[in-house]
Every structure is written in structure tokens, then in C-alpha cells.
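Entry 14. Ran structure prediction on the chain below.
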Amino acid sequence: MIKMDSQSQELFKKAMGDYPTGVTIVTTTDADGIPVGLTVNSFASVSLEPTLILWSIDHKVSSLKAFTEGRGFAVHILSEDQQELCKTFASKNVDRFGNCSWELSDNFLPIIDGARAVLQCKTFKTVEAGDHTILIGEVIDISLNEKNPMLYHRRKFGPIPSEFYS
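Output, C-alpha cells:
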């Protein structure tokens, strides 16, 4: 394994931060049934047959065990008007679910109101990769709202510029 120095790590962060992505909040419940969730931009589709998606979680995140040992999770593709919610779920020591409207789905997953799309998944596979674990989920339910998605670019969240929609 090649060890990157701090300068190389900063260049890597800048390169990845300059790559625009969508923004999601991923939710589940812990062993006690308490909802947990976090803001994630490491999200991608994997397969159509079966329908699979993936995202990754840092090993230092306090909710790691809830996601890696749970049966499933919900990926909320955020809409452009959910910037405050995005920041809330990216913050530490905050009552994340106390600051939003949500309900438990028939799949026993916390579903936050107002997302562009919600993909409810059962855990298909987990893969340890460096300081993260990649979670692959099989999509078991999809809901979609006709809203514009949020973008993450250069460490900022915001709407996609309107010229992209013409």
C-alpha cells in the first residue's frame, strides 16, 4: 500500500472536491430502533439487475455499527431546497431527527420528508476499503418527487445552475 503524505492528501481532497456530485442523507435504525443518519456524497449506482447502489462510511463515524450490522438503509437524494437539512445531518452533537419531519416506513427505515428521491435498500454486501466501509444495497422501494436535486461542488452545497435544465 502506498502511503500518501499530507500534501498529497490535500491535493486528493481538492481534486475530489472539484468533482461535482449529488448529495444524499442515508438513514437506518440502530439495534434499539433509534433512527440514525448522516450526509453522504459518496453514492453511486452499481447494477440494474439486481438493482444495486453503493455508498461509503468512514470508520470513525459513531453510527458505523448501525449501518454495517443493520438489515438495510434508506438513501435520500436531496432536493435543492434541503441545504439546512444537509448541514444538520453533517453536524455532530445535533438532534438530527428532531430538526426534520420524518416517519418510519413499512421497511422500518426512517424516511425524511421532502427529498428528491428515496431509495430504500436491504444490505446486499459490505466491503472494507481503507478507512471506509462500502455498503452495497439492493433497492426494494423507490419514491420520486419532481424536484431539482442538490449539488456538492468545491465543498459547497447548492442547486444545480438553471442552464443545465434547458
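The two ends are 45 Å apart (CA to CA). Will compare against last week's run tomorrow.
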